[in-house]
Amino acid sequence: MKLINRIGATAVAVVLAAGISGGAQAAEWKGWNIHVPDYPNTIAMDKFAELLDKGTGGRITLKMFHGGVLGSQPDAIEQLRIGAIEVGNFNLGPIGPVAPEANVVSLPFIFKGMDHMHRAMDGAPGDQISAGMAKKGMVALAWYDSGARSFYNSKKPITKPEDVTGMKVRVMNNDLYSGMISALGGNPSPMAFSEVYQSLKTGVVDGAENNWPSYESTGHFEVAGYYSMSEHLIIPECVCINADIYGALSDEDKAVVRDAARQSADLQRELWSKRAEASREKVMKAGVKFNEVADKAAFQDAMKPVYAKFLESNPDLKPLVEAIQATQ
Ligand code: GTR
Hints:
This protein is an alpha/beta fold. It has two domains: 2-146 and 235-276, D-Maltodextrin-Binding Protein, domain 2; 149-234 and 287-326, Bacterial extracellular solute-binding protein, family 7 (D-Maltodextrin-Binding Protein, domain 2). The protein has 16 helices and eleven strands. It has helices at 2-17, 40-55, 73-82, 92-95, 100-103, 114-122, 124-135, 175-183, 196-202, 212-217, 220-223, 243-247, 251-285, 296-302, 304-313, 318-326, and strands at 27-32, 60-65, 87-91, 138-144, 149-153, 168-171, 187-190, 207-210, 226-233, 237-242, 289-292. The strands form three sheets. Strands 2-1-3-10-4 form a five-stranded mixed sheet, with helices on both faces. A four-stranded mixed sheet has the order 8-5-9-11. The radius of gyration is 21 Å and the shape is globular. Bound molecules: beta-D-galactopyranuronic acid. Beta-D-galactopyranuronic acid is lined by residues 34, 73, 91, 93, 146, 172, 193, 210-211, 214, 237.
């Protein structure tokens, strides 16, 4: 009897320590991030952890695991949803297959530029996307920048859709991106971020697509030296938290968590624009062959089947797509 009581008491203590019951109990959270130490997101997530610690007087601590050591991004998203990881900095790209509302930002060229993306995410479309994610167990506390993604490869400059024809191109795990490459006549290869360098180097893929900071920080520019400014995707990122853990917090702690995430996002956005410039300069100095894409309309036209297929499978998301397009 005594033993059973002791086991019971231990179990309760473990549950409380894990923060499941929220309130004023101490909690130690784990955080996922995919990037290298000096990356804007890494610095900003460390800031989030620091502010959380300060704001709760050490009751909530966040141990950040950078460099994707806790698993690939699609895996980490699942781990966050079940509460095995409490917090993560995720790109909305791999969240799209889980939360359809979040997938609209992965429609190529849906945003006209960074400012348009910010206005949409700070307005009603952003609220609808957050609500869709919350239904799937993820609360978006704040949005990080991730610039615009462009194509790069080891073969030649891309100036028109036909240049992608026959190319093997790595994409993130999301059917929309595979559809995008297929619509350009290329062969999509969904793959984890950590595998891309080796795959480019050994010719398993000819190219990939990303923003300047990721192209640079991963060393992809060393093995895929043509960067073509297509800017086909502008995908925001979130500071996300498991919905049950967030829901169980006191109102006071919720405010601390949100405020810490917002401040970390302010920092991330500031660092992001600086890093985008610095990364661009670094790869250009290293000899990357860069070209503008003068006729973006040709790429946009080629995306019509991608939109048609998406809206056919998600007719209820048509108003959201239109609301983003109509955002001034
Ligand atoms: C980066 C993004 C990562 C990851 C990566 C990728 O720009 O910040 O979260 O999505 O791209 O291509 O897998």
